[in-house]
């Protein structure tokens, strides 16, 4: 049996021993609304002072942990109890588990604490009754009788991976004529490898409005995108990793084993907002939509992959999981919508000729002689503490006043050698300083690929290229998304850091001592980068 170190025992013996009886116990605490994941439960460990009627410590632990866990929580109850309790040793401890009693007797034998068994623990019993009432009163994410069915159906969708051959604008209609729904319009997410899932719009109008909002907000600071997102009228299924760590560490979700994929269902409505809960009718509607969609993509996978403009339609009889309003099944028709797809694609490509003219003017004004070819460039964030420090430096260009919101100031970091860094700083100073930073999307006339150009606009309106990125590169997409979100938090304020140390140990991750200049500026949207701004 593991015992305390002698130094720990001496430390605990020095604490005041109060004439109190403490109750301690460990019990499972889980929701009955999670049949899709029977392992999603934990043990709750409680230590309460029965004499004063207060909780001294509480922990949720994995059920597989041994009896040491209850001792760890007891240590906190003794040395670092929850307020208003003070550090102290009890005179007596009572438990309702014989094994816990014998274990604690061995561990605490040097602390002069009596360990007794009692069949009931009045205060802890009452607390767990309260916990159970709270858990039982919660609305489950899915109706319990449909939860496992929907969970399994979602994993079938994950296995079918319709995003491998369907883009978001390639809409499928699902004619159901039940639950006050004539048709659902399915949009599949995932071809870019960023987010995976399916949106089932309740109307064609809602779908078009959202797509128009996304296109209008493209390359902006996403200031209007959140509002547009919440105005959608749709059901959704999305996929994420069971691991709740930072998504940046997980890579592409599609590379993970199926056991690490977690589906989430929900609803979005302009008057309700987003909720990750489906009620009974919504759950049945989602089941029918998923089942019919799965059958369609399995039947027409080759045609969906190869023949973009082909009209496809198929009728299916979908059995309901239980009789609903005297119906055991529904007739559902799934159809491809090439005309709507073409309309959405046209929305995304409006004013191509005007854009080409604008691009030509920008290319004519663009210079690429500011940043050395071998320089290292990255999009990042500068903590508020580091920002305050750099603002005291000699090579600091002040920007507008703003409230520090979020994790820091969005910055472009250019790292090169010390002499070249000094040259960049001098050239920017000669141009009157940095005015703005912008990302502008253009089409390469040779390979027809879309590229994001990273641009620096000087106060004398000269325009310099600092980077060129493939528009559909998942890493760049995510980096630019974070850039726009941070610029939104700072009201468009951002910065440029010029750093040395290209060939040293801090290559790619310059430290404070490497940063030779901080130039604060503002983020210029692609729409704002017009001919007028270049004059």
Radius of gyration: 31 Å
Residue-averaged pLDDT, rounded?
84
> In DSSP terms, counting alpha (H) and pi (I) runs of 4 or more, how many helices?
15
Major sheet summary line: 9 strands, mixed
Number of strands: 22
Measure the end-to-end span: 80 Å
Unreliable spans: 31-40, 245-250, 350-354, 531-535
User: Which word captures the global form?
Assistant: flat
Strand content: 25-35%
Helix content: 25-40%
Structural class based on helices, strands and sheet pairing: alpha+beta
Q: Short summary of the structure?
A:
The protein has 15 helices and 22 strands. With 535 residues, the chain is α+β, with helices and mostly antiparallel strands.
Description of the molecule:
- The protein is α+β, with helices and mostly antiparallel strands.
- Helix content is 33%, strand content 31%.
- The chain contains 15 helices and 22 strands.
- It has helices spanning 6-13, 68-79, 98-107, 122-137, 144-160, 204-217, 225-230, 280-299, 301-306, 338-348, 352-365, 384-390, 418-430, 474-489, 531-534, and strands at residues 17-29, 42-49, 54-61, 89-95, 114-117, 172-178, 181-189, 196-201, 234-241, 261-269, 273-275, 313-324, 327-336, 366-367, 376-382, 396-397, 409-415, 434-443, 450-458, 463-470, 493-499, 515-524.
- Strands 14, 15, 16, 17, 18, 19, 20, 21 and 22 form a nine-stranded mixed sheet that branches. Strands 11-10-9-8-7-6-13-12 form an eight-stranded antiparallel sheet, with helices on both faces.
- α5 (144-160) runs parallel beside α8.
- The longest helix has 20 residues, at 280-299.
- The protein is flat and about 85 Å long.
- The termini are far apart.
- The model is unreliable at 31-40, 245-250, 350-354 and 531-535 (pLDDT under 50).
């Amino acid at each position: 049996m593991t015992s305390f170190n002698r130094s720990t025992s001496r430390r605990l013996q020095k604490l005041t021993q109060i004439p109190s009886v403490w109750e301690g116990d460990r019990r499972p605490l889980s929701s009955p609304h999670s049949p899709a994941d029977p392992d999603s439960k934990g043990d709750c460990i409680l230590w309460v002072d029965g004499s004063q009627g207060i909780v001294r410590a509480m922990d949720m632990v994995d059920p597989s942990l041994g009896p040491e866990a209850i001792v760890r929580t007891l240590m906190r109850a003794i040395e670092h109890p929850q307020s208003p309790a003070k550090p102290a040793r009890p005179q007596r401890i009572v438990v309702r588990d014989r094994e816990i009693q014998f274990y604690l007797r061995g561990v605490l034998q040097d602390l002069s604490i009596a360990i007794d068994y009692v069949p009931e623990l009045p205060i802890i019993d009452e607390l767990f009754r309260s916990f159970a009432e709270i858990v039982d009163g919660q609305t489950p994410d899915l109706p319990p009788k449909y939860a496992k069915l929907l969970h399994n159906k979602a994993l079938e969708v994950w296995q079918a991976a319709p995003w491998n051959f369907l883009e978001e604008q390639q809409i499928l209609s699902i004619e159901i004529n039940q639950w006050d729904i004539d048709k659902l319009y399915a949009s599949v997410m995932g071809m870019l490898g960023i987010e995976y899932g399916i949106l089932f719009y309740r109307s064609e109008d809602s779908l078009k409005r959202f797509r128009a909002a996304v296109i209008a907000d493209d390359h902006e600071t996403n200031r209007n995108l959140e509002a547009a997102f919440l105005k959608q009228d749709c059901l959704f299924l999305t996929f994420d990793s069971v691991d709740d760590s930072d998504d940046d560490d997980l890579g592409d979700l599609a590379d993970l084993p199926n056991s690490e994929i977690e589906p989430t269902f929900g609803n979005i409505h302009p008057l309700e907002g987003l909720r990750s809960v489906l009620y009974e009718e919504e759950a049945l509607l989602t089941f029918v939509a998923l089942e019919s969609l799965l059958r369609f993509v399995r039947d027409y996978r080759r045609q969906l992959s190869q023949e973009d403009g082909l009209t496809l339609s198929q009728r299916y009889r979908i059995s309901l999981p239980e009789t609903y309003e005297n119906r055991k099944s529904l007739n559902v028709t799934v159809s491809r919508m090439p005309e709507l797809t073409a309309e959405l694609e046209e929305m995304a490509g409006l004013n191509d000729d005007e854009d080409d003219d604008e691009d030509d003017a920008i290319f004519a004004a663009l210079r690429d002689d500011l940043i050395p070819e071998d320089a290292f460039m990255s999009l990042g964030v500068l903590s508020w503490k580091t920002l305050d420090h750099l603002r005291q430096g000699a090579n600091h260009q002040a920007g507008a006043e703003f409230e520090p919101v979020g994790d820091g100031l969005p910055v472009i970091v250019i790292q090169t050698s010390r002499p070249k860094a000094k040259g960049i700083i001098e050239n920017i100073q000669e141009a009157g300083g940095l005015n703005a930073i912008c990302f502008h999307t253009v089409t390469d006339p040779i390979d027809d690929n879309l590229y994001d150009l990273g641009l620096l606009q000087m106060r004398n309106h000269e325009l310099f290229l600092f980077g060129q990125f493939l528009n559909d590169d998942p890493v760049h997409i995510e980096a630019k998304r974070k850039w726009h979100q941070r610029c939104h938090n700072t009201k468009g304020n951002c910065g440029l850091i010029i750093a040395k140390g290209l060939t040293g140990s801090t290559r790619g991750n310059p430290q404070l001592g490497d940063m030779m200049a901080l130039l604060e500026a503002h983020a210029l949207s692609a729409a704002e980068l017009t001919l007028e701004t270049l004059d």
